[in-house]
Write a structure and sequence with these properties.
Layout (H helix, E strand, L loop, with lengths): L16 E3 L21 E5 L2 E4 H18 L3 H31 L6 H16 L3 H10 L4 H22 L7 H10 L5 E2 L2 E9 L7 H16 L4 H8 L10 E6 L5 H7 L11 E3 L2 E11 L2 E2 L2 H31 L2 E3 L1
Antiparallel strand pairs: 1-10, 2-3, 2-10, 4-9, 5-6, 5-8, 7-8
């Protein structure tokens, strides 16, 4: 297995510092639009160089929206500095993650890299190799360099995903404690799960004729026919293909006339036909929820997933902090 050796690189250029796990703190002046590119070295991480040109290239797609979103030169400088330092930190992290991958003796199968390479050309260039090669020329990059970059991305994604996974079970006690401390997060407004049949006028057919059609639909419902089936046949709205189902809706999300009818119905009950303008409606309440704090049993799975996600993110942060602490980085 390849052993990992950290070597401090000596340099006579001015340095921000030779420190372990330091967060990048570069000012905006180096990266704001219009600044003269220096093509200088930003940092050396385990012998690998990060250049100003590389950081600028990654920043470029985000700069237009960033500029549009700020209101002052001072805010632009602050946002630009934050973007630049976040990118630099990501580049540093990628290097130390790949180094750790190699140190541990892991390998990515060649078939995985080859498949990802072919998929990238298909996805990003429509399978057009000439477009792909033109892109490489614009970046002054070779196919080999592109494949190496792709392999690094695969390694970073693989290792990050691996470190996010946690085998720790979330105990019922933890779930209950979280629920008790955060009950307000589980407050729910009164709501209904609603399905609807909308009859719309067409040609010479107006509201009166539509009401007669609606009465026939009510008769078929009374005979036990499925509401969703009849909605697919008769309804003329965006949800007709979905059996007229609109899902969960709060009172405030409905027009008053619809809300008053819907919230007066019991679970599983459908309304008589009623007119709004030149349309005729029949609505059905599939489920109802009362206003108040949701019971623990209804939100237990949500809490467990949330706590699992928190634990996974914390595991990844701890792992990355450990790798940063081991790394020796030169900032210029």
């Amino acid at each position: 297995m390849k052993k990992f050796i950290v070597l401090a690189v000596l340099c006579t250029s001015p340095l921000i510092g030779l420190l372990k796990a330091q967060t990048p703190t570069f000012s905006a002046e180096r990266f704001v639009p219009g600044a003269t590119p220096r093509n200088s070295i930003i940092a050396v991480v385990e012998g690998q160089v990060i250049t100003e040109e590389e950081v600028r290239r990654i920043m470029l797609p985000s700069m237009a929206s960033l500029i549009r979103g700020v209101k002052s030169k001072q805010e632009l400088g602050k946002q630009t500095a934050q973007l630049a330092n976040d990118i630099i930190q990501k580049l540093i992290d990628d290097i130390i993650i790949v180094d750790h991958f190699k140190e541990e003796g892991y390998q990515i199968p060649k078939t995985v890299i080859e498949n990802q390479y072919k998929n990238a050309i298909q996805r990003d260039f429509g399978g057009d190799r000439s477009r792909f090669l033109r892109y490489l020329r614009e970046r002054n990059q070779t196919v080999r360099q592109y494949r190496e970059e792709l392999e690094r991305k695969i390694i970073v994604q693989s290792m990050s995903s691996r470190m996010r996974k946690t085998q720790a079970e979330i105990s019922p006690e933890k779930i209950e404690t979280y629920y008790k401390k955060n009950k307000l997060f589980f407050f729910q407004d009164e709501s209904v799960n609603l399905s609807q049949i909308t009859l719309a006028p067409y040609q010479d057919v107006g509201p009166d004729q539509l009401m007669k059609t609606a009465e026939r639909i009510i008769g078929r419902l009374a005979d036990g026919e499925d509401f969703a089936k009849l909605a697919r046949i008769h309804s003329k709205d965006d949800q007709s293909d979905n059996g007229g189902e609109y899902g969960w809706l709060k009172r405030t999300e409905l027009r008053k006339e619809l809300a008053d009818t819907a919230f007066s119905l019991r679970r599983g009950q459908y309304s008589n036909p009623f007119r709004l303008g030149d349309h005729v409606f029949i609505i059905k309440v599939n489920e109802k929820r009362s206003e108040g704090i949701q019971p623990l049993d209804e939100v237990r799975e949500r809490i467990e997933k949330l706590l699992n996600d928190q634990a996974a993110r914390e595991a990844q942060r701890t792992w990355l902090a450990r790798l940063r602490k081991k790394a020796v980085i030169q900032y210029f």
